[in-house]
What we know:
By secondary structure, this protein is mainly α. The protein contains 6 helices and no strands. The chain has helices at about 1-5, 10-20, 45-60, 65-70, 75-85, 95-115.
Amino acid sequence: MKTVYGEMCISDCAVRKWVRIFKGKVPRETILRDRKRSGRPLSASVTAHREKVDCMIRANRRVKQKEIANAVGISKEPLHHIVKTELGYRKVSVEMKAQRKDMCTQLLELSTIFILA
Length: 117
């Protein structure tokens, strides 16, 4: 099979494993999907986490995600999802953009004054 399909071909070991799993069972009764398992929830973005993260960011805009993750008690990946997707924060705030625009406008006005003088 590897000569025909190349390296993307399924291994003999995997085929043998599947044969052991499905041997003796009626194909219609065989479940191919993962069953639900107990354990950690897939998402840590509950309302309490969102509120804590939002309060920390509003209190200190320069706080690092690692510090927030340690304080809230979740990993960085769910925290990143909360910050970016659910809260809509970005790296550069709107206030910073407005300040930059004002500074550039002032510099442009100053440069035209010096050129005209």
